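re: ur question from earlier - yeah i can do the single chain one, its not a big deal. heres the input i used so u can compare w yours
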Amino acid sequence: MRAVIQRVSNASVEVESNQISSIGLGFLVLLGIEEADEKQDAEWLSSKIAALRVFADEEGLMNKSIIDVGGEVLVVSQFTLHASYKKGTRPSFIKAARPEKANPLYEYVCESLESILEKPTLKGVFGAYMDVNLVNDGPVTIIIDTKNKE
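and the output i got, formated as C-alpha cells:
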C-alpha cells in the first residue's frame, strides 16, 4: 500500500458536481493498493497514519498527532500511486490491485482508522472520477509505503 498523507485545513471530494465528503483540519489520504497488499498492510498503515506527529504543539513544533488535535480524515482511493514509468512515458498500472481486491482493502483501511480515531473516516467514491479539493496546511505531505518501511 502506498499513501500520500496531506495535512489539510480543509478538503472535499465531488463526484459529478455533487460534494460527497468534506473535512476541516486533518488528513487527506490518497491511497493506492497493489496486488501484493494484505490486511496486515492496512493495519500497519492505519496505525502509522493515526500516530503521525505532524500537527503543531503550543510551541509551534510538529509534536501532535491527529488524535491529539481531534482532526478528521478523508481517504480517497488512487490506483495511479502504483504507476510504473520504467519504459517510455505512458505509465503502466500493472501493480495496482484489481477493484475486487482493492475495494475491500480500501474499506478496511477506513474501518481501521475509524476504530483507532474513534470517529468516522470520510471517503471518496471507489472507482469514480472525483474532483478532490484541498488546502494543504504547511504544506505538509508525507508518503508512506508498506513495502518500504523507513
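Strands lie at 2-15, 18-23, 26-32, 55-56, 62-64, 72-77, 122-123, 131-145. not sure if urs matches, ping me
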